[in-house]
C-alpha cells in the first residue's frame, strides 16, 4: 500500500464493522517464548543478619493429607506420605513445614535476592509477582518430597496476568507458567474499572492520519485520554481514503470493533454508508503524557486485584513467580553513583549493595557500581544503597526523574544518592523508607 508521509485530513472518523461482519475473525497475538539464563548475585554476607522475615511453622502428620492456610490467605495442600529422608526412606511420623513469603522491595533486599539475566553481555531483569520459601524437616533433619509427589501451593498475589514460575537451586530453574485464574475480592469497585488502551506513538513516515472530529469519550478504554489522533488501519489504498474523505460526510460515528485497539468509523457520503477501520495514536509530545496516565492507572488498579496463583511444587526451597521486564520506551545509560554525606562531602559508591527499584515496586535489581542502568522514564524509579552503619542512601522517584531528564541511550550519567540520618533497626524501618521514595 502506497503510504505518504504524515498526511492530515479534516474529518470525523469512526471504526465499526457492519452487522454482516460481526463474526469476522480477529488475528490472535503471537507470544514468542525465549529461553533465558537467570542468575542470582552471590551473597558474600547478609545485608541485615539481625533481621528475619516472618516465617510460619506447621506441625503435620505425614501419613494423611493436610491443608495449611497462612495469614496472607495462601494455602498449602500437602498429600499423604509425601516425604522421604536423605537416604530415600519414607517419613511416617510428624513433619515440620516452614513457610515464608517474600513480597515487598524491603523483603527482597533483606533476603538479598536479585533477579537478573544476561543476554549478549547486557543484564536484564525480572518482574516479580511474589516469592515464597517452603521447607520441611523431621526430627530436626531436612526431608524431601518423594518422587511422584508434589505440594500444591495456592499463592495469593496482587499481580494479575501470566507469570513464569521458578525454583531456585543455585540458579533459577524454570518450572512452568502460573495463571491468575482464581480472582479474589471481585466485589472491589476499582477492580472492575476498564483498563485503558495502551498508548501507541504515531509513525509519521507510514501512518495515514485522519483528523477525527467525533468524540471518543463514549468508548470506555479511551476515556482516560484527552488528545489523540486517528490513523487509517484498513486495507484500502491511501489514495482511495483521501478521495473518499475529501467529499462532505454525514452521520459520522465511532464504535468499537472486534479487534483489540481498533475501531470503526462509519459515515454517509453521497447517500452511501461507509465504514473504515481506524486506530488511535499519539504525537511524540502527547504520547509521553498518555503513557504516564496509563502506567499510573495500571499501577493503582493492579494493587487492588488479588489472585490465587496455583502451582504444583516438586522440589522444596525458594520459589518465584516472575516474567521478563521489557519496555519499548526503556533505555540503557552508562551509570555511575556517588553518595552525598550529611556533611556535604561526596564519595563514590564502593562495594555497597545498591538496588534499583522500578515498575510498580515489583522490579528490584541489584546494580553494580558502574553498569548499564535500564529504565523507563514513564515508570517509577528509585535507588537505595545499604550503608554499613545501619543507614541508607537514596534517590527518590522525583530526583531520579531530574537526573534522567533528556537522557539518551548510552549516555553517561552520574546519580547522586543522599545519605539519610534514620537508622534501619527493623524490616519495618526499611519498608517505610522505600515506600516514601
Describe the fold and architecture.
The chain is mainly β and 437 residues long. The chain folds into three domains: 7-20 and 196-291, no CATH class; 45-184 and 306-321, Chondroitinase Ac, Chain A, domain 3 (Sandwich); 327-436, no CATH class. 12% of the residues lie in helices and 40% in strands. The protein is built from five helices and 30 strands. It has helices at residues 105-111, 238-246, 284-302, 397-404, 427-436; strands at residues 7-10, 38-40, 56-61, 66-69, 75-78, 83-84, 94-102, 115-119, 122-138, 141-142, 144-145, 151-157, 163-168, 172-178, 182-183, 208-211, 229-232, 250-256, 263-269, 272-281, 307-313, 317-324, 331-340, 346-348, 354-359, 363-367, 370-375, 380-386, 392-395, 412-419. Strands 2, 3, 7, 8, 9, 10, 13, 14 and 22 form a nine-stranded antiparallel β-sheet that branches. Strands 23, 24, 25, 26, 27, 28, 29 and 30 form an eight-stranded mixed β-sheet that branches. Helix 1 (105-111) packs across helix 5 (427-436). It is flat and about 85 Å long. The two termini are 50 Å apart. The relative contact order is 0.18. Residues 1-44 and 181-191 have low confidence and may be disordered.
Descriptive labels:
437 residues, mainly beta, Chondroitinase Ac, Chain A, domain 3, 12% helix, 40% strand, disordered N terminus
What's the quick description here?
With 437 residues, this protein is mainly β. The chain has helices at residues 105-111, 238-246, 284-302, 397-404, 427-436, and strands at 7-10, 38-40, 56-61, 66-69, 75-78, 83-84, 94-102, 115-119, 122-138, 141-142, 144-145, 151-157, 163-168, 172-178, 182-183, 208-211, 229-232, 250-256, 263-269, 272-281, 307-313, 317-324, 331-340, 346-348, 354-359, 363-367, 370-375, 380-386, 392-395, 412-419.
Amino acid at each position: 500500500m502506497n503510504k505518504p508521509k504524515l498526511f492530515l485530513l479534516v474529518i470525523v472518523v469512526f471504526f465499526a464493522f457492519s452487522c454482516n461482519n460481526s463474526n469476522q475473525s480477529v488475528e490472535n497475538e503471537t507470544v514468542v517464548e525465549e529461553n533465558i539464563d537467570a542468575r542470582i548475585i552471590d551473597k558474600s554476607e547478609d545485608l541485615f543478619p539481625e533481621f528475619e522475615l516472618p516465617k510460619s511453622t506447621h506441625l503435620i502428620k505425614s501419613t494423611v493429607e493436610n491443608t495449611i492456610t497462612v495469614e496472607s490467605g495462601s494455602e498449602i495442600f500437602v498429600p499423604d506420605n509425601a516425604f522421604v529422608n536423605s537416604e530415600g526412606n519414607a517419613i511416617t511420623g510428624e513433619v515440620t513445614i516452614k513457610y515464608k513469603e517474600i513480597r515487598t522491595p524491603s523483603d527482597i533486599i533483606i533476603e538479598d535476592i536479585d533477579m537478573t539475566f544476561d543476554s549478549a553481555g547486557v543484564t536484564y531483569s525480572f518482574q516479580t509477582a511474589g516469592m515464597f520459601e517452603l521447607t520441611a524437616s523431621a526430627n530436626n533433619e531436612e526431608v524431601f518430597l518423594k518422587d511422584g509427589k508434589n505440594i500444591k501451593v495456592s499463592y495469593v498475589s496482587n499481580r494479575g496476568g501470566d507469570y513464569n514460575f521458578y525454583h531456585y537451586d543455585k540458579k533459577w530453574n524454570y518450572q512452568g507458567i502460573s495463571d491468575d485464574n482464581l480472582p479474589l475480592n471481585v466485589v472491589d469497585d476499582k477492580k472492575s474499572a476498564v483498563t485503558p488502551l495502551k498508548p501507541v506513538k504515531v509513525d509519521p513516515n507510514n501512518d495515514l492520519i485522519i483528523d477525527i472530529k467525533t468524540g471518543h469519550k463514549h468508548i470506555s478504554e479511551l476515556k482516560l485520554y484527552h488528545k489523540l489522533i486517528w490513523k487509517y488501519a484498513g486495507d484500502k489504498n491511501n489514495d482511495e481514503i483521501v478521495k473518499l474523505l475529501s467529499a462532505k460526510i454525514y452521520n459520522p460515528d465511532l464504535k468499537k470493533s472486534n479487534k483489540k485497539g481498533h475501531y470503526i468509523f462509519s459515515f454517509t457520503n453521497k447517500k452511501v454508508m461507509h465504514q473504515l477501520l481506524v486506530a488511535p495514536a499519539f504525537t511524540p509530545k502527547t504520547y509521553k503524557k498518555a503513557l504516564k496516565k496509563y502506567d499510573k492507572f495500571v499501577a493503582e488498579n493492579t494493587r487492588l486485584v488479588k489472585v490465587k496463583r496455583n502451582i504444583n511444587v516438586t522440589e522444596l526451597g525458594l520459589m518465584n513467580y516472575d516474567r521478563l521486564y521489557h519496555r519499548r520506551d526503556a533505555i540503557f545509560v552508562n551509570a555511575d553513583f556517588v553518595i552525598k554525606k550529611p556533611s556535604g562531602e561526596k564519595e563514590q559508591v564502593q562495594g555497597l549493595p545498591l538496588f534499583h527499584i522500578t515498575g510498580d515496586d515489583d522490579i528490584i535489581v541489584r546494580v553494580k557500581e558502574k553498569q548499564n542502568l535500564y529504565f523507563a522514564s514513564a515508570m517509577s524509579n528509585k535507588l537505595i544503597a545499604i550503608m554499613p552503619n545501619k543507614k541508607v542512601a537514596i534517590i527518590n522517584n522525583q530526583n531520579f526523574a531530574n537526573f534522567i531528564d533528556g537522557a539518551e541511550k548510552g549516555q553517561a550519567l552520574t546519580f547522586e544518592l543522599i545519605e539519610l540520618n534514620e537508622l534501619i533497626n527493623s524490616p519495618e524501618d526499611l519498608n517505610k523508607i522505600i515506600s516514601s521514595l
